[in-house]
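Per-residue structure
===
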Amino acid sequence: MNESTDDTYDDKFELKPGPKDPSVLHLQAEHRSSIIWNVGGGDVLRSRVRNPSSNRFPSLHHRMVPLLRDVGFDGVARLTGIYIDWSLVTALVERWRPETHTFHLPVGECTITLQDVSVILGLRVDGQAVTGSTDFKEGWSKLLENMFGEAPEEKYLDGGRLKMSWLDKILPELSDNANEDELIRYTQSYMLRLIGGILFTDHQGSEVHCMFLPLIQSFERSRTLAWGAGVLAYLYRELCKACKVGLWAWTRLPTLAPVPRGPYSDNKEIWGDLPGPFGLSCHNVSVNRFSLDVLGPDHFIWLPYADVLDDLSEICQEGNAVWCYKGPIICFYIVEPHEPDRCVRQFGMVQDIPSSATVYSRCLHKMTLKGKTETNWRDKHKEHILCWDNRLQFVNVINNVGAGVTTRYTEWYANVTRPYHTRVAAAQSYAVIVISIMCFSLSCML
């Protein structure tokens, strides 16, 4: 029998990880969790990002803030030194399922939604798709010269990728007496650093693709774009760059989060380099795997923003009309499904069995920029962009307000999920069942 279809334990009490029914998690054979169950171990994930509070970023000048706020980038610009618990991130990524674009936890499916991006990063999620062409007729070097006053040397520009060290070199810090043109240039360069260093990071965290240049060339255009939806599409595709999963995890998994310092303010770190709930600055990946394996209903917060939404800035709430949108989200070459109907408890609804997960072609899901230097992605993905343009027609209606799940969902989910990633947790579950049976048998004998 294929392991991906095994029960948690068979008639001989041999531990089996699931799922029982492989119709949903049909890619189990190639999933990371199979290796963890069979072999154990696995490296802790790492990612490279530029932190706005580090010395690799120029300081945020107070004159830039209104311009960044206008385009919806001031929230990201104010991100401070965030401690990343890479072991927690790793354990979560191991529970991400590409078949459904959700995390499969013992308590049910959950995911990172447009609401999360809007609230945590303060990015607009209701606007035009983040897309365009990966080619500029006059050349990227010419466009860079038009925007920043000089063209980069050849060593700083590799095809369509710009080394951000060039921006550090020509535009290090904005002076207090800078004129309006200089202010615009510095603000645009700061936006480009945020795009390449935080929002759409590459594997090095040191380059940014020039395809984003036309999108920030005009503040008027930048403010119309759904940057948050683009970031979420990119995150779905590149979930291994899990620094963006960390804050989401802390808002929903309090038992695995560091203790927050207090309420949010513009000049204060919420999390920073904080100790965990047990005074530990770093968790062990094996401990986090086990913790997720035995996660109980009271250990996951489905509505972490309920008490703070009214106090958040306007931009964190202005896209609430599309938070429950079901359909494609787009970032140039990337098209990914946003499926909040699989996680309606995150929106205050009772979870029932969701509709079948959207399945895009394998070719579309694996599409990259490699060899596509002259592609107009607006034309290439026009069908999906049209759907996004009509997004209000694809918003799930909230008509089952409440908490919890239906009985049939519980039965269905138990069959289609993989409840355990570690043998220790599976053995513990088995032991509890055996002890319960023994206690029941003894009570019947008395």
